[in-house]
């Protein structure tokens, strides 16, 4: 387990709309753009093997980089494989959220940032608990939400998941908008994230949903 002292002051950041990473959760990624292939080559040479996932606040235009949200989450490369045509399949395991102090551009084809970790020290602890979590009504809401947006899942695995895994996995996988994903990321505690998640699902279920993708 990493400590605050192990975390570097500067990390590469990967702006990817809708790709949410949370502490102790896992995010699979398919890397194929040349600049991010270069990023991965560089990251694999570092001791920490950290990549900062972050949501764009707005899209870039032309060659301009997108404006980024201030808060992201860094993940450590925990799985890695290369395809025959030079693409990478990786898995990031969430370590800690961070706050961008300043962006660093011009030295690499990808974006780097000077970051601060101090506001998120609890991310480095063991699994977070949610003492106020009432699972049966939450699961009933989840089922209504899945039906509204056309999602399916393995309900037995969801029922057996611990509180943090359940709440964080749903926050990452459900097809929310970028700003909604950012709100889930910035929730100070697991209980706050669960309340935000429930509110988003309730709103979507009432409006009938519009996403017909399948979650396996």
Architecture blueprint of SSEs:
Layout: E1 10-15, E2 26-31, H1 34-43, E3 50-54, E4 56-58, E5 67-68, E6 71-82, E7 88-104, E8 112-116, H2 135-149, H3 155-160, H4 163-173, H5 178-186, H6 190-207
Parallel strand pairs: 1-3
Antiparallel strand pairs: 1-8, 2-7, 3-6, 4-5, 6-7, 7-8
Provide a descriptive summary of the structure in words.
Helix content is 32%, strand content 26%. It has six helices and eight strands. It has helices spanning 34-43, 135-149, 155-160, 163-173, 178-186, 190-207; strands spanning 10-15, 26-31, 50-54, 56-58, 67-68, 71-82, 88-104, 112-116. Strands 1-3-6-7-8 form a five-stranded mixed β-barrel. It has a two-stranded antiparallel sheet with strand order 4-5. A hairpin with a 5-residue loop joins strand 6 (71-82) and strand 7. The longest helix has 18 residues, at 190-207. The radius of gyration is 18 Å and the shape is globular.
